[in-house]
Amino acid sequence: MTKPKVPLQVETIMQQSAHPGRSGALLIAVLIVLCPTAAAVEPLPEPPSAPGAGPLPEICPVPTGANPLRAMETARGFSVSSCSSTACHGGPKAGNHDVQSFAATLWVDGDPHARAYEVLHDPRSQRMARLLGIGPAHQARQCLACHSVQAESRAPLPKGVLADGVGCAACHGDATQWESRHFLPEWKMLSPAERASLGYRELGSPRERADTCVRCHVGASDREVDHDLIAAGHPRLFFELATFQRLWPRHWSPRDRAEAAADFTERSWAVGQAAALQAVAELLDTRAQRAVRAVEKPMAAAAKPWPEFAEFDCYSCHRSLGPNADVQDHRARPRPPGAPTWQPWYVAAALLLENQVGTESSAARELAAEFAEVRRLLDAGWADADEERLRRIRFEARGMAAAADRLATELSARPVVVLDGTPASFDRMVAARPDEWHRWDGAVQALLALEASRAGGPARHDGRPPPRVRSALEALRDSLRFPPGVDAPLGFDAERFQRARADIP
Amino acid sequence: MLAATTLGPAVSGFIAMLMLAGTMAACRAEELPGVAASGFAFKGSGLCVKCHRTEQGEWCDVATTTVWRHDAHSRSHLALLPDNPRTRAMEHALGIKAAETVSCVACHTHPAAEPPPEEEDDVVHAGISCETCHGAGAGYFEPHMEKRWRFLSVAEKGVLGMRDLRDPVLKAENCLSCHLGDVASGRVISHAMYAAGHPPLPAFEMETFSRAMGPHWKRVWEKAPRVQAAAAAAGYHTEAASETHRALVGTLVALRSSATLVQDYARLAAEPGDRPQAPWPELALYDCQACHHDLRIPSGRQAAGYGRLVPGRPTIARWPRAAAGVALAVAGQPDDVEALLSPWVAVLNRRPFGADADLEPGAPESLERIDAAIRALQAVRRDDGLDDRRREIAERLSAAGLRCGDIDSARLVAWIMLGAMEGNAAWPAEARDAVAANLARDAAIGVPRPPAEAAALPPFWQTSLEAAANANLETLRSAFRLPPAAQGSGR
């Protein structure tokens, strides 16, 4: 490892306190922790917005005479090691039925979130960082925001903590105030509000989970995957809670939780979609707000230009122009020819929500209508950075976020969430807006809704859906895969998909 | 005919600038002027045809209109007629009538004669015709028929409204006004038009395309020795240097045009007013393949990097830059085109497509450097030891081709390179042929064919779409490798 540049003061301290047998780098890692005052006072530098902007500083000045032990404490609430001792959450799996006692073990063993920081060292990440000119990826704030627990902390975290990846604190919250209490009997006596006031995030319900996941998997004001990042090599983002939960190695017990309910998968799908739509709307608001700043003050730190291509359908533009270009079918859209379409993944989600759970819900109808309005607004003059238009987008986006929030709350409060899931219900939806269902994004969303409607309960363990349904769904899923070597739905045939979809038992 | 009946009365040349104003559908062809920027009125081709249907003696020994009859330009207006299914589809998608829409008629027809000729000869076409390129005829059509015409200077002819198409700069500017775009004359294609079905504008290489259109002229040096001598004695303007030099001039003009096109369009868009003068951004001003490519794993684009651009930001058309470095180097200038265009790149990095207001100030130093290179290339004469330079040029083009990043750039470089290799003594004939065959076969670089051959082939734009979709950059680049030069040749 190359020796990072350190301020003179730090070098002096290093020389004074050099321990034989310890590498300089390790010392520096420790020294980062030893800066309580500076860490508490100094906010993080603004995210680099252009190539050439510097990485997150690895070192901050250490006031002479600071208490190193107190500094160690500040990072404890973010470190996996605070949770993963053998007697707490890091116990052995073998012969153990209390999942909580080996949650951290499961996480370390098979959870992709545990690798989130590690991937920043991959050749792909290195190339991305080089193309973006942001310094090493594992030090860049915009990468660390989602690939570590950094976003949970106002102060820069030491490398040893960042290296945990998306560790416990990323979802469960900064444990600084509750880490030493939540194993005591009194913890169980605390109300959810009291726990929340200590920084603890409840994650039992689909809403709590979705709101947590979407911060990275959709994006938020302090963490997002924009088109610059995607062009440099980052995968595009998708989110659908029920599917993600199913594919994700579970490190908790499904018993004694919302998860035990028979409608858990359907509820997760519906609430997850609504929560994701709220995040999508809020992110659009944030992006439009930054774009307004970019019009007013192009050089301002929070300014970011419009259009943000990541808001739009990838494959509207990204298709070769050969006579055989058949990536997507763009028939029958009443919009100017040549405009990309806005958020096909989430527009499909809004329409599916209205169709599957919302027939009697005013919030669902309102949300679908809001989405159609934003879509209309963005389709005409989609790249126009006119300030008045951007303000209008913000206004509509906030209305959409509020509608999505209402719907998510309403769905969470329902005693039972049932998805319609019948071929007839999908047929009605496609017939109502045929032009919305020519795209691959919409087809995949329809598939995920079908899967959720047929799974019921914790799908992985109780044998549902029956094998016949499962294999039909698998075949439909396979038909939507990208061809090898291609990162686009080349050869996708919407009509064939709709026919196959209607045949699912 | 169409142009004569639908195009309206004369309005000032300045109106031409404003023709882009508003959306396409709102612009009507009546606003097209019957007066050229030179201030002269158009006379119609009927007058020209009267003489140029046959050879006019030694000085003008080509039956111009006989050649012209087979030139696709003469039929360009037919594309606007509603019996063309592609046109019908475009009209439907855009909600326009092509024959009444400025951006269509500006390139597909010729401005109306004033007054319209009463009876049209069968070779008088409403398509692109004589005056579109040579200039509006009201000023010169009479003196042009006199004997002293031949010995007027270029400047004097220019005063009378005739454009000197022997000047590669004027010729390139004229061709590129449609083949790339020109805001002042209303010749700008929009992305909505492409999306509705307009074929893509391929890379434009003046000399190659001139050959393909079927030349209705002869170079001065191709005429009888007696004529050449008389022309020289009279101070007759002769054409600069080789076709390769002219092609390099053409490519620099394209570079300048592509850079200023964005600025000119942005100026319209940024003009204050009640209604937008032009919508911004206009995607047709940018590199098609910047967005339009299939996403692949692994991504060749990410491997190649984005140069000075922020990843994911569309760039202006790429092909005008492809051979510009070679042209700059041959003109004795630094050949870093990316550095030359850095003011534009800075604007594109600030905001996707650039903000209209940012593009306004332009970059005079960069444009001046391009102009200086053009002047240097124009100063080269045919007796300046051209063969030596042509070997150097071919080698530089080969190097540019080995770095090319898209099919249109590859084609432009290949077309100029094939010209530079033609009859070039630096390579044995079979080695030259092998290079040409490699480029044509492996790299799928088509060469536009003259009308007689082209009639039997699918439209060029269609094969270019196919080639662009299927292009393998590795194969493409490797086809530019040059064989060893013959011993003792060149330099």
Task: List the main descriptive attributes of the protein structure presented here.
heterodimer, A: 505 residues, mainly alpha, 2 domains, globular, B: 491 residues
Write down the Rg of chain B. Answer: 23 Å
Largest sheet entry of chain A: none
Mean pLDDT of chain B: 81
Principal-axis shape of chain A: globular
Radius of gyration of chain A: 24 Å
Number of strands of chain B: 0
Instruction: Describe the global form of chain B.
Output: globular
Structural class of chain B: mainly alpha
**Assembly state:** heterodimer
Helix content of chain A: 40-55%
Tally of helical runs of chain A: 23
Strand content of chain A: under 5%
Helix content of chain B: 40-55%
* First and last CA, distance of chain A: 57 Å
Mean pLDDT of chain A: 82
| Number of distinct helices of chain B | 27
Q: List segments of chain B where confidence is low: pLDDT < 50 over at least 5 consecutive residues.
A: 1-33, 114-125
Largest interface: A-B, 43 and 45 residues
Structure description:
- The complex is a heterodimer of chains A (505) and B (491).
- Chain A is built from 23 helices and no strands.
- By secondary structure, chain A is mostly helical.
- Chain A has 2 domains: 195 residues, no CATH class; 236 residues, no CATH class.
- Chain B is mainly α and 491 residues long.
- Chain B folds into 2 domains: 162 residues, no CATH class; 236 residues, no CATH class.
- The longest helix of chain B has 28 residues.
- At the A-B interface, α6 and α13 of A face α10, α14, α15 and α26 of B.
